[in-house]
Design goal:
Number of helices: 8
Structural class: mainly alpha
Number of strands: 3
Shape: elongated
Order of helices and strands: HEHHEEHHHHH
Strand content: under 5%
Strand order of the largest sheet: 1-3-2
Largest sheet: 3 strands, antiparallel
Helix content: 55-70%
Radius of gyration: 19 Å
Length: 149
């Protein structure tokens, strides 16, 4: 898997290095260029793009610039949201978790008006954590009000 995935990422970096492109621009060439071994399970193109590249407002994918704070922040946010997804899909109390991932997840859920997710994940957090973190508490209290509407 690693070699094929690695090759695919190198190819994508080369394609997107100087010229951002949409998924529709990349996909036909991606399928034509990359031949995987029979035993390889290559991730979907969309997954490769979402995990390793950044999309601009026009829907074009580009290679993140490590010197641009905004690119770094977007990659970090994406990683935090992946972690939050694990929390939102699980059951039972969370004993160990990243508060930053919970904050990012609450912020994202609020933006999407997904109040039920905020309430559900908050219910898995230790009460003390919720009470001592003003950001988490604000999202939770407001989500409770909105979820009931």
């Amino acid at each position: 898997i690693r070699d094929s995935e690695k090759t695919a990422l190198l190819w994508l970096r080369q394609q997107l290095k100087d010229c951002p492109q949409t998924y529709q621009d990349i996909q036909p060439r991606f399928l034509r260029e990359l031949h995987q071994a029979g035993h390889e399970q290559l991730p979907e193109l969309r997954d490769l793009l979402e995990e390793n590249f950044i999309q601009d407002e026009a829907g074009r994918w580009y290679v993140p610039d490590p010197n641009r704070a905004q690119d770094i922040e977007r990659l970090r946010e994406r990683a935090l949201l992946r972690e939050f997804r694990v929390y939102s899909e699980g059951k039972g109390r969370l004993k160990v978790f990243r508060s930053e991932a919970v904050r990012a997840g609450f912020r994202d859920a609020w933006r999407r008006r997904d109040y039920a997710t905020i309430v559900r994940v908050a219910g898995r957090l230790p009460e003390r954590v919720l009470q001592e973190d003003p950001d988490l508490l604000m999202y939770y209290d407001n989500a409770l009000l909105r979820a009931g509407e």
